[in-house]
Amino acid sequence: METLLAQVAIFVVAAYLGFELISRVPNMLHTPLMSATNAIHGIVLVGAIIVIATANDAFTLVVGFIAVVFGAMNVVGGFWVTNRMLGMFRPPNPRVKKRKG
Amino acid sequence: METLLAQVAIFVVAAYLGFELISRVPNMLHTPLMSATNAIHGIVLVGAIIVIATANDAFTLVVGFIAVVFGAMNVVGGFWVTNRMLGMFRPPNPRVKKRKG
Amino acid sequence: MQVLTFLAYLVAAALFITGIRRLRTPETARSGNTIAAFGMIIALAATFFVIDIDPVLGLPLIGGGILLGGIIGAVSAQRVPMTGMPQLVAAFNGVGGGCIALVALSEFYQGRAETWVASTTGLLTIIIGAISFSGSIVAFCKLQEIAFTGSVAFPLQQVVNALIVLGILLLSANILTDGALAEAVGLPVLTPLLSLYITLGAALVLGILFVIPIGGADMPIVISLLNAFTGLAAALSGFVLENYALLIGGTLVGASGTILTRQMSGALGRPLGKIIFAGIAAAGGGDDEDDEEREVNDVSAEDIGSYLSEDSEKVVIVPGYGLAVAQAQAPLFELMETLESQGKEVLFGIHPVAGRMPGHMNVLLTEAGVPYEKLYDLEDINPEFEDTDAVIIVGANDVVNPAANDEEKDSPISGMPILEVENAERVIFVKRSLSPGFAGVDNPLFYDMDKTMMYFTDAKQGLQDITEAVKNA
Amino acid sequence: MQVLTFLAYLVAAALFITGIRRLRTPETARSGNTIAAFGMIIALAATFFVIDIDPVLGLPLIGGGILLGGIIGAVSAQRVPMTGMPQLVAAFNGVGGGCIALVALSEFYQGRAETWVASTTGLLTIIIGAISFSGSIVAFCKLQEIAFTGSVAFPLQQVVNALIVLGILLLSANILTDGALAEAVGLPVLTPLLSLYITLGAALVLGILFVIPIGGADMPIVISLLNAFTGLAAALSGFVLENYALLIGGTLVGASGTILTRQMSGALGRPLGKIIFAGIAAAGGGDDEDDEEREVNDVSAEDIGSYLSEDSEKVVIVPGYGLAVAQAQAPLFELMETLESQGKEVLFGIHPVAGRMPGHMNVLLTEAGVPYEKLYDLEDINPEFEDTDAVIIVGANDVVNPAANDEEKDSPISGMPILEVENAERVIFVKRSLSPGFAGVDNPLFYDMDKTMMYFTDAKQGLQDITEAVKNA
Ligand SMILES: NC(=O)c1ccc[n+]([C@@H]2O[C@H](COP(=O)([O-])OP(=O)(O)OC[C@H]3O[C@@H](n4cnc5c(N)ncnc54)[C@H](OP(=O)(O)O)[C@@H]3O)[C@@H](O)[C@H]2O)c1
Ligand SMILES: NC(=O)c1ccc[n+]([C@@H]2O[C@H](COP(=O)([O-])OP(=O)(O)OC[C@H]3O[C@@H](n4cnc5c(N)ncnc54)[C@H](OP(=O)(O)O)[C@@H]3O)[C@@H](O)[C@H]2O)c1
């Protein structure tokens, strides 16, 4: 019970943190942001691995295997494509953006 | 033990959140910020109250009493003076600040 | 040992946070992504230290699964054209949701969801994960134009949805009461596990029905919303598995999806509920042609070329959805270079919802070679129009439509903040016809004979012709 | 019940967060403070629900203590002049630290610090809280000029400090081993509890010795650092008491103090370590007068008045520490009004470390009536100087000293970002003499006969005279 309450507290604080973090990402980077956060929820791959490791019947093994494949797709593909996108965001020449606001 | 670990996690996430929050407060408001956060750590008054409530000897009662006085000073004075300061920050006439940056 | 794994997961979470922090500037963004990926590796490595894997069956299954999934993911990530980004994100989001649902399912199947907390959150995880899975797959099919294109509606849709939700609630109650509910109403055949499978199926159907009536152009919002769902489901499974990397990471993703969804519907000037539930209503509307043949200032590439070359110093380019459809980024880049070689100042005005998903236009243009410091967003470009000689609007309409500011009329884009191109000296539209954009609202600027030049053509060909004309002028 | 209290504390923490969020703009800041105070009330109310208070002894003690402390706090908060803010913050920070230390002390005394986690964090809380208490009180005395003014040094200070730290470490080890250490070295009289009291005393002495060598002008940094300490101690006691409002609130305060300390030492261009440990070294230095009688453009109030009135359109005022000392905010406001009534544009350039604590100058000027949208910070004012006709620098030197940018010389302000007043048409100094400011670095601008006007006077009287002169010009 106490752990659960602590987890709820983590959830609340992390939610606030998430809002602060995301609201500072400029519109220009919203597509990479979406695909990077998308990759982050692939962390559930950890859970899928544990499913296989603790499985003791064929059904669970099959479910676990599909879950691992899905999770790995999500993680690897997500970070990969984000990296590809952000690779394009290098300024060809080191100019500094000046605006009059 | 598990609760402790969860608390460590809360501490870490809250520290990140704190840095995000504070770094967005403009210099103009740093004095009120300092006195407001100062008031917030007066939340330890809660602990001081519990000390008196669970005390069973004179020494603890005395220690608890001093702690309660200190804590109450911190909380009441801190929020009060912050409120007083911020009360001055009202624009006398609703002009919008325009800058050329 | 337990402390070490805990620390590893906490470090992973901290790296996710640091990674997202670095997404604030284009300079640091790429390293941020790398840092987050590094956090993922730490979390995975820590997991391998705490579990006992059966070397005969478990190890090959895990290794093979990661390899298979990883290869599929990497290959599609490497091959996808930048215009196909929305469907790729949808697909990855879908498999992520599926993974979460399956993990929670096996928790139940193995009887590890014992406490009420574990069973409730587990059940919620299955339902949300399944909706996210099937919804994302439908979104993928729509965007890839495999199936369900346009807004697919059928009668009594709302009623059907409500019935499914009711069914899920009843079945959930049965699961959480360990089958007592079914027995009480004389249906002992409905065991908790069977109820679980039916719930899973119902959630999958619900995800499909939720997305099919929504039109393709609104898919980005749907994907972002489903992204928030998946993040939430991941956070929930963090509760069950007592894994802080999952809990914190999932929450961050949930917050991210929520904010992006909100910002998008804000930039569209429409509340979220209207977007989702208006899908069906909107399907009927479409193009109500009320043609009264109004006159426009129809020009040729040569006219534009000579105006740009001779009479303008500062040019702003506003790209829209049509640019992406026509794949005209490269010709646009060439036009920019040509203009700059003639000493003109060229800027780009990027509306938050220009393109097919938020920020997408920036990715497309940087891919074509436009330096990102030329990409100005709404607030930064609007003050620039005043001393701009020519605005070239390529395949866009809604994002520059002054009708959005018309307080008298109540149109789908009312209240949406727009790029105020009408403040510039001259406005040049490059599009195929007078047809309005996604929102179906006619643009009064089209008919401004003094200010506006209309060049009717496909964006790709048109931009090439304009570039030629500028060179020859 | 447990869940309800938990939720109440969590809501309190959320309100603290929301409150700090709203400190981002002057418009929302006041409501933010109210929200945070409301969170405090919720936390206190929740506490009363979970404890059993002895109505004879406990209730009056608690009620009386809160009343007494509250009244002292409220009265001093209401009475303090805005220039006395630094010492008030120091005092409140001190009592907060003391409260934390006492709470942790009684945990030990009542034998509730049983696990190693509880005893370690409890001990740490006592030490940090005590340092924060005595250090803040010394800072208060310095600022209020009750005692320890200037930099108080004594021989072998560093050695003494090191010995005290060593003693605290040994005693702590004894406490955590439950007296085994003392017994092993044949000192059984040193019981854990006795060791605890000695530790407390040693920490108090350490706090005093830490702060007394640091000069009054560096006190804001010390206060901010001690604020971070107190926040950390509060967070630690949140661990022991398993109270999430304390844990989260304390962490936020700790982060706040850390950031402000870092920003201040950044704005001063000096690393934190140098500020703290250079206290002793700096004490010797002081004013090394190397007077070679250089010529300056010494002017009268009338000269300034006629220049302002006749030859300037845009005036920037740069207030510094001397303005606060001279209590000249009201005359400054009057000068602003007079200039504005003559159609001039008047702005204020506020350096981050102008005044006696960060952001303090803003509070002082808004109190005097200056609307906050006229207060420009470093980055915003620097581009304004180019078309400024006159900069009036009142009681400031370091923050406008171009010597900070001189890469050849290594002065205490080297690298500190300054207000680039030398870009303006004319620079007017209002101060009592040619003496440099806190950093003791001479200002080359003083001797610029063409650009600079020096008006030697007390800030208050001088500003009044200038206002008169402007009116009569
Ligand atoms: N980005 C997002 O995240 C997002 C999300 C949800 C909804 N939306 C919606 O998408 C719309 C985006 O606005 P927008 O101004 O970029 O686009 P728009 O208003 O939908 O206009 C697109 C224009 O492109 C033209 N076009 C299409 N194919 C073309 C081609 N091959 N060559 C030249 N022109 C072509 C079309 O006109 P012709 O047929 O005459 O050529 C059309 O007027 C907004 O209404 C927004 O609400 C965006
Ligand atoms: N704000 C903070 O948070 C903070 C923290 C730590 C350190 N500091 C330090 O404080 C300094 C602040 O710089 P600053 O430019 O504001 O001040 P400053 O450089 O210390 O100069 C203050 C000037 O005020 C003049 N002055 C004193 N009393 C006066 C009176 N009654 N009437 C008129 N003038 C008077 C003094 O000159 P005369 O004697 O000739 O009149 C002196 O030159 C910086 O060096 C900074 O490092 C600030």
Question: Can you give keywords for this protein?
Answer:
heterotetramer; A: mainly alpha; 4 helices; 71% helix; flat; disordered C terminus; C: 473 residues; alpha/beta; Rossmann fold; 2 domains; 6-stranded parallel beta sheet; binds NADP nicotinamide-adenine-dinucleotide phosphate
State the largest interface: B-D, 86 and 117 residues
Query: What's the mean pLDDT score of chain A?
Result: 87
- What integer value in Å does the Rg of chain C equal? 26 Å
Largest sheet of chain C: 6 strands, parallel
Name the poorly predicted regions of chain A: 94-101
Query: How many domains in all of chain C?
Result: 2
Give, in order, the helices and strands of chain A: HHHH
Percent in helix of chain C: 55-70%
User: Could you list the spans of chain C in which at least 5 consecutive residues all have pLDDT below 50?
Assistant: 280-289
Adjacency order of strands in the biggest sheet of chain C: 3-2-1-4-5-6
Report the β-strand fraction of chain A as a percent range.
under 5%
Structural class of chain C: alpha/beta
Number of DSSP strand runs of chain A? 0
Rg of chain A, please?
Answer: 19 Å
* General form of chain C: elongated
Structural class of chain A: mainly alpha
N-C termini distance of chain A = 52 Å
Bound molecules: NADP nicotinamide-adenine-dinucleotide phosphate
Helix content of chain A: over 70%
Biggest pleated sheet of chain A: none
